TrEMBL record:
InterPro entries linked: 7TM_GPCR_serpentine_rcpt_Sru
Species of provenance: Caenorhabditis remanei (Caenorhabditis vulgaris)
Native organism taxonomy: Eukaryota, Metazoa, Ecdysozoa, Nematoda, Chromadorea
Name of the protein described by the UniProt record: Uncharacterized protein
Family matches, as Gene3D superfamilies: Rhodopsin 7-helix transmembrane proteins (1.20.1070.10)
PANTHER family cross-referenced by the UniProt entry: SERPENTINE RECEPTOR, CLASS U, SERPENTINE RECEPTOR, CLASS U-RELATED
Pfam families recorded: 7TM_GPCR_Sru
Keywords recorded for this protein, A-Z: Membrane, Transmembrane, Transmembrane helix
Membrane spanning stretches: 20-42, 63-84, 119-140, 152-172, 207-227, 248-272
Length: 330
């Protein structure tokens, strides 16, 4: 990476953006798969709202459903983090912001862009753990799991959004700045970083410790969940319930890929700073993989979405059958 700011440097102030470059193509190529994924997320939300109206749904725990929807809308494999990632790495690396950034001074606005990226990075570590806990509760507390799950969701959800501030608060007095990317990046390819934080605490160190801790905890809870479901597999009669459990298991595992992506990048940033410049180009696609894979896997594998498609057809069929019977009886 680099620690020399471009702001005030006349070479960068006079930099001319070229839209016909590989970084520009790489920055806008994700539109091909992001737009269809957004439509899938909207469909998931529609089914979720429909389940809330009906209130009773045997195929999925409503608290589990709410956490999946919330995580897709807000966290690391979500749209919000992708926007933050775009504003701090992808767009600056194209050169489109270089002249503007070099013409100004280090600012709190640039700091906020970087801080949002870090903030959603922390929240992404907590949702997979919460999801696995909510799936464990009905298995170990089958009689009062709804009340217990509701209490956990109501308490843990606000805590998840407050948790990142425990590690982001040193950034409050910091100023955001633009730095030149090293390696094989062209002149003018920059990224947004920060300077003058409290206590000189490095976000990479706290991120690294958090990723290791939450990845370990989530792996333990998911292992417990897998072993428990394996014991109960033969006792379940409903094929739909088995498919629903399989879908949630695969969806939860796909969420864990965020840990691997973040761990690889942060570890390289700390221990192999020379190679981190190349991982900067790959990390956004790892985040995209999280954002794309989770909703698609959940939507394509869970029977609740197939049920949502089948129910209207069945209703029409029953209506026509009733009309035919009325005509026959008359």
């Amino acid at each position: 990476m680099n620690n020399v700011s471009i702001q005030g440097d006349i070479r960068y102030i006079n930099f001319e953006f070229d839209p016909f470059t590989i970084p520009v193509l790489a920055a806008f190529a994700p539109i091909i798969y992001v737009i269809p994924t957004i439509f899938i997320v909207i469909k998931i939300i529609k089914v979720y709202v429909r389940c809330l109206i009906r209130k009773k749904q045997e195929l999925i725990n409503p608290h589990v459903f709410s956490i999946i929807v919330l995580s897709q809308f807000l966290v690391s494999y979500s749209f919000c983090y992708m926007l933050a990632d775009y504003s701090t790495i992808r767009l600056p690396s194209t050169g489109i912001m270089t002249s503007w950034c070099a013409s100004g001074q280090p600012s709190h606005f640039l700091k906020v862009l970087f801080m949002l990226s870090v903030y959603f990075n922390y929240t992404s570590m907590l949702f997979p753990f919460l999801l696995s806990i909510l799936r464990l509760i009905p298995l170990y507390r089958p009689f009062n799991h709804e009340k217990l799950s509701g209490r956990i969701v109501s308490i843990s959800t606000p805590l998840i959004f407050l948790y990142p501030f425990l590690f982001c608060f040193p950034l409050f007095p910091a100023l955001g700045t633009c730095l030149q990317l090293k390696g094989d990046y062209h002149f003018g390819a920059v990224f947004i970083f920060y300077d003058r934080s409290w206590f000189n605490i490095k976000q990479a160190n706290t991120l690294f410790l958090n990723v290791i801790a939450w990845f370990f905890i989530s792996t333990v809870t998911n292992t417990m969940l897998y072993l428990k479901l394996r014991k109960l597999r033969n006792k379940r009669r409903s094929l739909k319930l088995q498919r629903a459990e399989f879908s949630l298991s695969v969806t939860t595992l796909s969420m864990l890929s965020a840990y691997i992506t973040n761990l690889a990048f942060v570890a390289a940033f700390i221990f192999l700073p020379g190679s981190s410049a190349y991982l900067v180009a790959l990390r956004p696609y790892g985040n995209d993989c999280d954002f794309v894979s989770v909703p698609w896997i959940f939507y394509l594998t869970h029977p609740i979405f197939k049920q949502a498609k089948v129910l209207p057809t069945e209703a029409v069929r029953q209506k026509w059958a009733a009309v035919v019977l009325m005509k026959i009886s008359s």
